[in-house]
Protein: SAGA-associated factor 29 homolog A isoform X1
Amino acid sequence: MSSPDIAEMLDKSKELDRLRKEQEEVLLEINKMHKKLQSTPEAVEKPGDNSLSKLKMLYTQAKELSESEMSISNQLLGQLDAIIPAGGAGQQRRRIEGNEQKKKRMKGDSDIPRLSPSMRNQQEFFASLKGEQVAARVAQEDGEKDEWVIVKVTHYDKETKEFEVLDEEPGEDEEGGAQRKYKLPWSHIIPFPKISDLATTQEFPPGKQVLAVYPGTTALYKATVVQARKRKTDDYTLEFDDDEEDGSLPQRLVPFNQVVALPDGHRQ
Structure:
């Protein structure tokens, strides 16, 4: 076997390792969603709740990763079959058996069903966010607090599955007040409700904790709904955490399309 063939096989092996690690991350997110739905099953009945949509998206991602792993495994097996002499029938049988075991392992370890919508629909949804303003978590994973800000989506990379976003507010700590750019996974992005899609906009009742844009800024903070909207186009009346003035929390009006569900594990 030539050196280029060996190099190609090593590259495929590295890709398999990357896919396995990414699958483990997705499975952790799926387990978190399962626990959330088990503890508060009534949440999915509320209008606009996106828990099931997020879970379906995770299942779709896991499905794609599994299929990519199987495809690369078959390519490696094909290369090995081509260089190992004799025993072709036995090798073909082992390849099929190996694939069946892989399917059983994926279903047994992760309990991931084969669900739709297709990955194409997911990719189209992500790509449709180009040019839109969204909420984005830009702080580091190991940071003490989560920093959520308004950014503009400039590109979605289908290969890396990352969003390229622009913080249009000049950074105070940036040289020359330059706008900051980030590359973020979809789990760090929350689309804002659209005025044109009021029918599916999530409703937040009084007492519900949310993530909302603080008036006069481009930053989002944890807040509690004080007064629900009477009409779908009305503002929310919110009390922001750590916004105390004269010993009490002032009530602030925030447009409904600048209020989103509070992410799990939010740190502020």
Notes: The CA atoms of residues 137 and 188 lie 5 Å apart. The chain has four helices and ten strands. Strands lie at 133-137, 148-157, 162-167, 180-185, 189-191, 209-213, 219-227, 236-240, 252-254, 259-261. The radius of gyration is 23 Å.
